[in-house]
Design brief:
By secondary structure, the chain is of the alpha/beta class. Helix content is 38%, strand content 19%. The strands form five sheets. A seven-stranded mixed β-sheet has the order 6-7-4-3-2-5-8, with no helix packed on it. The chain is globular, with a radius of gyration of 29 Å.
Length: 725
């Protein structure tokens, strides 16, 4: 490609001119001790320093005097320390009271369990404090506010950045060093073409980095963050699409032409596809028929929307070309569920399939390996066991990955490597907001199924606290008396595990008066089995969790499905893949510890058939006993069964990685992007990435060279990975 000729020369030119690559040892004010402190923070270069952005700001443009500070609002007050008092109202509680004054009055500030503050502050220190103003005992008060000790250079009318710092470097020195770095860097290379910046109304990168550290207004800070967020999103979109772009691979995909197997599959299904299912199937068949482009498609559907039937159409299309397909699921439970559901239908369509998990006996495994290599099997269902080196396909042309976010990047790549040029179909029952889908699955086209073909009897959800536990236990008793079954979900396998944090919820909360509110003890599967066996002595109560062997888990699921187990006490291992219509009641212990996606998936295990389901989420019901985000999540869970509505709320309340229960996707984390507020920015970056790669598939056009090297800097040399260039 002629455009690539300029790449080496441009790389050398950029390397020589890039001040962002300079070592921090050359920075003004970076003494030996401060340099060491910066390196401990992971700051090695000028670029590292400039992207080490403030975690918050003290807005002196809106600072109040003590007298004018409004009650009940979070605001900034600048005052001087008058005296410090240490109190110990209880043996394990230390309260540090700091009294501050200005020309208008006295402010009392209380810090709980932070005795070190008394050593850090001294009479006469000038502080900026940000917190909620209250009034009690004749004083205006703040409880555990953010605060900064001000130096002589901090004056009213400015916005003071508060950077993440560590031992050996203060906020004041960090501000001086950053200011010096910005001064020496001046204007540096901007990776975005000027025409693209102008079209999107974005400030230059140089200006954005200045304004993110030292904004003249909070509005300017927001514009700076928006530019950095756009960069972050665009680079991710480009990296995703480059890694998935088959045009850069020297392999042509199979052009799948639907034939007899697809027709027989439609006839073998015990129902007709809904309009949404058929539309998704048509999308997939159209992609698979394209012999020039590999299919990269996400099939997104809530619990019970019938994604499996759509996936079977894709499996049949692969069989019609005499090639093979593999369906990889994250757990043995889910893989067996797929095989149990699909195998009879596929068999009637003339499609041969097998199941491979860690529990597969050695003789059966040997037959499967031999059949795959000989082309005698059309479809393989399995777990990560399908990635073993001895698993070799005769011709793998379709990889189906369910709940992709539960697999690592390397695992997904390993499966596709078994069939170079294979089409990819990703499925998930975790409702994902469009902005998050674009950010994580930006290289995938999306098909969505929103409605259940068979809505079932549905599930009613109630949030209860310990005082109402008898309602949940009574529902289990009624179900057992009617010959039905129940689930009980616990966050821990054993009490010996301790308080595993399933999300960022601290073990101790404080109410508005500063009093401790202890989070409830976490329930464990082993102790819950013992307790429920005593409560329901005539019922068979057994456990299921991820530490059990694959065969043992399979046996428990089979017995529960057959009705031999009355109450199944489990961890979230049953979140997907367990379909027992006779199970009508679920109790979720410590519901405040789970995100909405997990809670929604769990309750989807009941109410799937003709029998109505009831889900009881046990959690503290008062706001003082439950962190506010958890309170909103649980209220929403009671209010709606729409998984996409819940996903949007989860996105507003939690980090994007936590929604999916992971922090991976190739190590990607979005530092600057607000997935809720930046929907338009994410859409724009997605469209721009597609257009840029259409114009220059390797970003080697002269105006895109800086962008190319920004992508390499963030994600490695993807261009070599996909083109050998």
């Amino acid at each position: 490609m002629t455009e690539a000729v300029s790449v080496p020369r441009a790389a050398a030119r950029l390397a020589r001119s890039s001040v962002l690559e300079q070592d921090i040892s050359r920075l003004k004010y970076a003494s030996e001790s401060r340099e060491e402190a910066l390196r401990r923070l992971g700051i090695e270069s000028v670029g590292d320093l400039l992207y080490h952005i403030p975690r918050r700001y003290l807005d002196f443009t809106r600072a109040y005097t003590i007298e004018t500070a409004p009650l009940g609002r979070v605001c900034t007050v600048v005052a001087t320390v008058d005296r410090i008092v240490q109190k110990r109202p209880r043996p394990r509680l230390t309260v540090t009271e700091v009294y501050l004054t200005d020309d208008t009055g006295i402010l009392q500030v209380a810090f709980f369990k932070q005795p070190w503050i008394a050593r850090e502050l001294a009479q006469g220190d000038r502080l900026a404090l940000m917190g909620k103003i209250e009034f009690a005992y004749g004083f205006k008060q703040m409880s555990s506010p953010h605060f900064e000790k001000l130096d002589a250079h901090a004056t009213g009318g400015t916005i003071l950045p508060v950077h993440p710092v560590g031992e050996g470097i203060s906020q004041a020195w960090m501000r001086r060093i950053v200011s010096g770095a910005l001064e020496s860097a001046a204007t540096f290379c901007d990776a975005l073409p000027a025409s693209l910046r102008a079209r999107r109304g974005l400030m230059s990168r140089s200006r954005a980095l200045r304004c993110i550290h030292f904004p003249s207004s909070m509005g300017e800070r927001d514009l700076a963050r928006r530019r950095l967020a756009y960069d972050e999103t665009l680079m991710l979109q480009l990296a995703l699409r480059l890694r998935g772009d088959a045009n850069l691979l020297d392999i042509r995909p199979v052009a799948h032409t639907p034939g007899e197997h697809v027709q027989r599959l439609y006839s073998a299904l015990p129902f007709s596809l809904t309009d949404e299912q058929q539309a998704a199937a048509d999308d997939i068949l159209r992609d698979m028929a394209d012999g020039d482009h590999v299919m990269n498609r996400l099939l997104l559907g809530d619990v019970g929307t019938g994604k499996t039937a759509v996936a079977m159409v894709a499996l049949a299309a692969a069989a019609d070309t005499g090639t093979q397909a593999c369906v990889m699921a994250p757990t043995g439970v889910l893989a067996r569920q797929y095989a149990t559901t699909c195998a009879p239908v596929l068999e009637r369509a003339g499609i041969r399939s097998a199941l491979l998990t860690g529990a597969t006996p050695a003789p059966d495994r040997a037959r499967i390996v031999e059949g795959l290599a000989a082309g005698e099997l059309d479809v393989l269902f399995g777990t990560h066991a399908v990635l073993s080196e001895d698993i070799a396909f005769s011709h793998l042309s379709l990889a189906v990955i369910d709940e992709q976010h539960r697999f690592g990047v390397d695992q997904r790549a390993s499966l596709r490597a078994k069939g170079p040029g294979a089409d990819l179909l990703v499925m998930t029952a975790t409702p994902i907001p469009r902005t998050l889908a674009l950010s994580i699955y930006g290289d995938l086209d999306t098909s969505i199924i929103r409605h259940r073909p068979n809505p079932g009897a549905g599930v009613a959800t109630r949030v209860l606290d310990e005082t109402n536990r008898d309602l949940a236990l009574g529902a289990v008793r009624e179900a057992l008396a009617s010959g039905q079954q129940a689930y009980v979900i616990c966050p821990l396998v054993s009490e010996r595990d301790g308080a595993e944090e399933l999300e960022d919820v601290p073990g101790i909360e404080r109410d508005d008066d500063g009093r401790e509110v202890r989070a409830p003890a976490l329930h464990a599967v082993d102790t819950e089995v013992e307790r429920l066996s005593r409560i329901f002595p005539d019922a068979v109560v057994e456990m299921l969790h991820g530490r059990m062997g694959a065969r043992e888990k399979d046996e428990v699921i089979d017995r529960f499905r057959a009705g031999d187990i009355s109450v199944l006490v489990s961890t979230t291992v049953v979140e997907v893949g367990v379909d027992v219509p006779n199970a009508t009641v679920m109790i979720i212990e410590n519901g405040e510890r789970f995100g909405l996606a997990t809670l929604h998936q769990l309750r989807g295990r009941v109410g799937r058939g003709s029998l109505a389901g009831r889900c009881f989420v046990m959690a503290p019901t008062s706001r003082k006993g439950r962190p506010a985000p958890a309170h909103e999540r649980l209220e929403a869970l009671e209010r709606t069964t729409d998984g996409f509505e819940l996903a949007e709320l989860d996105l507003r309340l939690r980090h994007e990685g936590e929604i999916l229960g992971l922090r991976q996707h190739g190590g990607v984390t979005l530092r600057f992007v607000d997935l809720d507020a930046d929907a338009d920015l994410i859409e724009a970056a997605h469209a721009d990435a597609v257009e840029l790669l259409r114009e220059s598939p390797t970003l080697a056009a002269r105006t895109l060279i800086p962008l190319r090297f920004d992508v390499i800097d963030r994600y490695g040399d993807i261009f070599k990975e996909v083109s050998g260039g």
